[in-house]
Amino acid sequence: MSTAPGHTKPKRTDGAPVSRLQGLAPVLSSNTRVLVLGSFPGAASLRAQQYYGHPQNHFWKILGALWAQPLTGMSYEDRLAVLCERGLGVWDVYGACEREGSLDADILNAELNDFSVVRWRCPQLEAIAHNGGESFRHARHTERLGVPVYKLPSTSPANASWSFDRKLEAWAEVLRRHGVAA
C-alpha cells in the first residue's frame, strides 16, 4: 500500500478517522480495445456502485455523443453492455483509498490496482486512456502493458476549466484512433 505522493491526510470536521473505501470492479471484456482509467470513484459513484455515477460527470454524455446513443437515459447495465460491445473498458488506478468527499486531492493511502490482469482479460487491448491528471500520474505503471497511453481531460464536474465541447473533441481524437468511436 502506498500513499499518493503530494497528498495530505484528509481531515473530518468532527475529528473522526476517515474510513477506507473500496473501489469498483473493472469492466473488461475480451473485446476491450481501449481501457479508460479514472483515479477512484467519487462519493456519488460509490453510493450508486456505478462508474461515473455523478449526474454532472461528462463521461456518459461524451460517449453518448460519440456513439449517437442516449446512454444517460439507459440503465447502468445497458450502458456497460454498450461499452463492452464498442470495445471500451473502464477501471480506476486505485483499488482502495482513504478519502472524505470526492476530490482526488483528498486521497490518502491509495492502493494501486494490479494492471497485470488487463493483458490476459483483454487480448485485443490497443491503448490506455487516463481520465484526468491524477490517473495519469500512474502512467508509468500502465505503460508496462506495452500499448499507447494517453492523458485525457477529466470528465469530472470539478474540471470546469474544460468545456464539454473541448472534452468531447479530446476524447473523440483518442477513441477514433483506436476504432472505438466513428
TrEMBL record:
Q: Which InterPro entries match?
A: Hypoxan-DNA_Glyclase, Uracil-DNA_glycosylase-like, Uracil-DNA_glycosylase-like_sf
This protein is called what? Hypoxanthine-DNA glycosylase
Q: Which residues form the Uracil-DNA glycosylase-like domain?
A: 25-175
Q: Which organism is it from?
A: Hydrogenophaga laconesensis
